[in-house]
Amino acid sequence: MPGYELFGAEERKEVNDVLETGIMMRYGFDGPRKGIWKAKELEQAICDKLNVQYTQLASSGTAALTTAMAALGLGAGDEIIMPTFTFVASFESVFSVGATPVLVDVDDTLTLDPKAVEAAITPNTKAVMPVHMCGAMADLDALQAICKKHNLLLLEDACQSFGATYKGKALGSIGDAGTFSFDFVKTITCAEGGAIITNNKDVYTKCDGYTDHGHDHLGVDRGADLHPFIGYNYRISELHAAVGLAQIRKLDTFLSIQRRIKKIFKDALATVPGVTFRRLPDEAGDSATFLSFFLPEADQARKATANMKAAGLPAFYYYDNNWHYIRQWDHFKQGTVLTPFPPGLKQAMEIYKTKEFPASDSIISRNISTPINLSWSDAEVQERAEKLVNAVKSAL
Ligand SMILES: *Cc1c(COP(=O)(O)O)cnc(C)c1O
C-alpha cells in the first residue's frame, strides 16, 4: 500500500538535486536553482500520468481539498454532501472554507449511496463529494447523473486512490476537481503533500494563487506579482516534491504488485461461505491498496479482526476506530472547535448531536479492510492468505 516501503536511491537522488542548489522553495530564485524545478516537474508528471490538463501541488491532501473547495467557490451557507465513512480531513476542509458538511449514508461501494445523496439535496446544496476510499471508486456514473440533474459540482476526494481509474479515466479527473494526498502512508508519498487536478483552467488558476498567498505568478519576480484574491500558504517544498517525483515513476510497479497480491487474498477468501466483497463499480480500475470485505454479522467481523491481528495480519475495523467513521467522531458530533463556527453552520451542526445512520452502520460494522503491502515476498503472501482464511473462518 504505502510508497514509503519502496523508498530508495531514486528518492535520494531527486532530493540531492535540490540539496545541491539549496533552493528548497518552488517559486523564484531562477538563477541559483540551476534549472531544478521539482514541483513543476511533478505537476507535469501527474498531468501526463493521469491524463488531466492541470495539476496544482499543495502542502497536504487536506490543504488540497480546502484549496479545491475555495477554487470551486464553496463557502458559507453552501452545503457539501459527503459520506459518513471517510478520513476526518474531508470534513475539516469543509469547515475551513466555512461551508456545511451534509453527511449521508454509504452503501456497499464503501462510499456515497446515490439514493442517499439525492434525498439530501436542498436549495443550499452546492457540491457532492464522494470519497474514493481504500483505493477504489465510488459509483461515479450515478453520482455524475445526480450532479448534472441538480446542477451541482462534483468534487472527488481521491486522496486514498492515486492511480485508480473508472472506465479508463483517472479518479479525480472525472468531477469538476479531484484531490490527492501524498502523506507518508498513501500510495505514493512526498512525506507530506497533496494535489488538486482539474480540466478547468479557471479552477486551476485559482488553485495556483490560493496555495501561494493569492500570487498571480505573472510578475517578473515575486514582488511584482499581483494578488487578484486572498490566498494562503499551502505550498509544497521542493524537497517534498522531489520525493514525489521519484515515487510517481514507481507508480505502475506499486499498482501491479498490489493487484497481484490482492487477487491472491481475494481468491483465497472467496472460498469461505458467508464472505462477500466490497462492490467495485469498475474492478479493473481498482488500485488494490486494500482488500475490503463483509461478514454477515457485526460480531463476526469484530471477532475476525481480532483473529487477524492475533495472527499478525493488519486489519482495519473502521466501525470501532476513531478516524474514519462517524460513530466515534465525538468532536465532530459535538461541534467542538477552538474558534466559533459561523452562526448558520453552528445551527446546521446541531443535528449531528443525535442523528443516527443505521444504513451506514450496517455496512461499516460488517466491513474489514486489510491493507496490501508492497514489500511482502511471494512465500509471505501465500502464508498470509492462509492465515487470513483461517482467521475469518474461525469467526463464522
Ligand atoms: C489522507 C486523506 C486526506 C488528507 O490527506 P493529508 O495529506 O493527510 O492531509 C483526505 N481525505 C482522505 C480520504 C484521506 O485518506
UniProtKB/TrEMBL annotation:
GO MF terms, alphabetically ordered: pyridoxal phosphate binding; transaminase activity
InterPro entries: DegT/StrS_aminotransferase, PyrdxlP-dep_Trfase, PyrdxlP-dep_Trfase_major, PyrdxlP-dep_Trfase_small
Gene Ontology annotations of biological process type: polysaccharide biosynthetic process
SUPFAM superfamilies attached to this UniProt entry: PLP-dependent transferases
Key word Iron present: no
One Pfam short name: DegT_DnrJ_EryC1
Keywords, sorted A to Z: Aminotransferase, Pyridoxal phosphate, Transferase
Annotated family: Belongs to the DegT/DnrJ/EryC1 family.
Protein name in the entry: DegT/DnrJ/EryC1/StrS family aminotransferase
Organism whose genome encodes this protein: Chitinophaga solisilvae
Lineage of source species: Bacteria, Pseudomonadati, Bacteroidota, Chitinophagia, Chitinophagales
